[in-house]
UniProtKB/TrEMBL annotation:
Amino-acid positions noted as binding substrate in the UniProt annotation, renumbered to this chain: H116
Family indicated by similarity: Belongs to the aldo/keto reductase family.
UniProt-listed SUPFAM superfamilies: NAD(P)-linked oxidoreductase (SSF51430)
This protein's name: Aldo/keto reductase
Length: 280
């Protein structure tokens, strides 16, 4: 179990991925984004998660460059993720999308590249492109996002390389236990986006009671719950205090009873689109 912000999990190919990262979904280009990335890296985060559709890869890249310029950090110590958008799913178009993401980020390579959504009839060709990038050594690890069990099964029928990561919406109202067990059995690392349910769980009484018992925030309790389930987590924040707070997860642990109390909050509720029913 992770004991430090820079602790990692070994993906199926041996690449080390930090257990905790910074998400930048819905953070617009500009000074606030650049500062958030810099703050996270200075506070000890090593993982930043973006995507082509977020429209903020250039700012993420600038934040990375400014953080690297200011101290002894090196690019090799970082773990940078981006994702190919639905409109670019296809063999050649996915290869081109990867180049475009690298250009915007001004990076030589990505640590992880994901298919953002399982668009029917398109994700297999995109996966072939990711396999090509991986075999060429252009990306350290490849994976998917928002894939349900049946999407993973469909992909793996023809894949030469199994996805190393599956990044999905996951929080106490959407526990995803069956998907977690499937991914663990297949050697696919599960990763949670919107782990705090975009702030909607911060007033939850059960979580507040557990947090009070530990002298922690509700956000810290939820993120700790992720880690104890073996799930990589990427809370989003641009607030320096919360970025630091979200990383303070390693000086307490939840009991089995508390873990069960949190799991019991599962109502299958999503804040994002349903991977079986989206139209974009």
């Amino acid at each position: 179990m992770a004991k430090h912000l820079q602790d990692t999990t070994a993906l199926s190919n041996g690449v080390n991925m930090p257990w905790v990262g910074l998400g930048v979904f819905k953070v617009e280009e500009g000074a606030e984004l650049v500062q958030a990335v810099k703050t996270a890296l200075v506070h000890g985060y090593r993982s930043i998660d973006t995507a082509a559709i977020y429209g903020n890869e250039a700012g993420v890249g600038q934040g990375i460059r400014e953080a690297l310029a200011g101290n002894t950090l090196t690019r090799e110590e970082l773990f940078i993720t981006s994702k190919v958008w639905n409109a670019d799913l296809g063999y050649e178009s996915t290869l081109a999308a990867y180049e475009e993401s690298l250009n915007k980020l001004e990076l030589e390579y990505l640590d992880l590249y994901l298919i953002h959504w399982p668009v029917a009839g398109k994700f297999k060709e995109a996966w072939r492109a990711l396999e090509t990038l991986y075999k060429q050594g252009r990306v350290k690890a490849i994976g998917v996002s928002n894939f349900q069990i049946h999407h993973l099964q469909e992909l793996m029928k023809d894949a030469e390389i199994k996805p190393m990561v599956n990044q999905v919406e996951l929080h106490p109202n959407l526990v995803q236990q069956e998907l977690l067990e499937f991914c663990q059995a297949e050697g696919i690392q599960l990763e949670a986006w919107s782990p705090l349910m975009q702030g909607q769980l911060l007033e939850q009484p059960v979580l507040q009671a557990i947090a009070a018992r530990h002298g922690k925030s509700v956000a810290q309790v939820i993120l700790r719950w992720d880690l104890q389930r073996g799930i990589v987590t990427i809370p989003k924040s641009t607030n320096a205090q919360r970025i630091a707070e979200n990383a303070s997860l390693f000086d307490f642990s939840l009991s089995d009873a508390e873990m069960e109390q949190i799991a019991a909050l599962d109502i299958g509720q999503r804040v994002g689109p349903d991977p079986d029913n989206f139209d974009f």
